[in-house]
Write a structure and sequence with these properties.
2% of the residues lie in helices and 51% in strands. It contains one helix and 15 strands, in the order H-E-E-E-E-E-E-E-E-E-E-E-E-E-E-E. The radius of gyration is 29 Å and the shape is rod-shaped.
């Protein structure tokens, strides 16, 4: 007797002989911007239901800014990440005979700190002019350009200014700009990191033509 089998698609017998991967779920943490958290982050690891093979253990490790080697974790146990940085959490299931599941992976990025503020450089007329001393009267236009700013965790996203008084520029204005109006102009420089934290510096320009 000749029996012919026709199989459509790919039949992966190997996957049926592996346990299901653990489930890594989010429990708590304050969300910032661009995928960053601004507080401690708590995750929970749970055993999957209906695994093709019974699971005896779940193993987790953490790599990244700080590393933690493989450790057995209980069903429903929390993982708390407190230190700033970028981390990858990897967990896999293990059977009694030592068969591993594919790894479940979760990335956590934490930045709890405001950036170091950028500075404002001021010169007379244009970028090549003599330096202007903030707060002193001058009878010329003042050219402004931000410089610096630092954030070693999530990085600087943007540096902007806002001006009030004799010259009004809205929040989010990018430099370079030139201040031309007579009178006192107050300037706020805002430095923002990728997590959403900001720091500020204040400056004053006085023009009397």
């Amino acid at each position: 007797i000749l029996i012919k089998y026709v199989v459509y698609g790919k039949l992966d017998i190997g996957e049926l002989t592996k346990p299901s991967a653990p489930i890594i779920s989010f429990v708590s943490g304050e969300e910032g911007e661009n995928g960053w958290y601004t507080s401690n982050v708590v995750l929970k690891v749970t055993k999957p239901e209906n695994s093709p093979i019974p699971i005896t253990d779940m193993i987790c490790s953490i790599t990244g800014t700080r590393n933690q080697g493989e450790e057995v974790i209980r069903d429903g146990e929390n993982i708390t990440i407190e230190l700033e940085g970028i981390y990858e959490i990897n967990c896999y299931s293990l059977t009694q005979t030592g068969v591993k599941s594919v790894a479940a992976t979760r990335t956590v990025k934490i930045d709890k700190t405001a950036p170091i503020s950028a500075n404002l450089m001021a010169t007379l007329k244009d970028a090549n002019g003599a330096p202007y001393q903030f707060g002193t009267p001058i009878n010329q236009n003042v050219y402004l350009q931000t410089t610096g700013g630092e954030d070693n965790i999530s990085g600087i996203k943007e540096v902007t200014i806002e001006t009030t008084g004799a010259t009004k520029l809205p929040k989010g204005t990018k430099t370079p700009v030139t201040i031309e109006n007579n009178g006192t102009t107050n300037i706020v420089v805002t430095t923002k990191n990728n997590a959403g934290f900001t720091s500020q510096k204040n400056y004053t320009i006085i023009i009397d033509k």
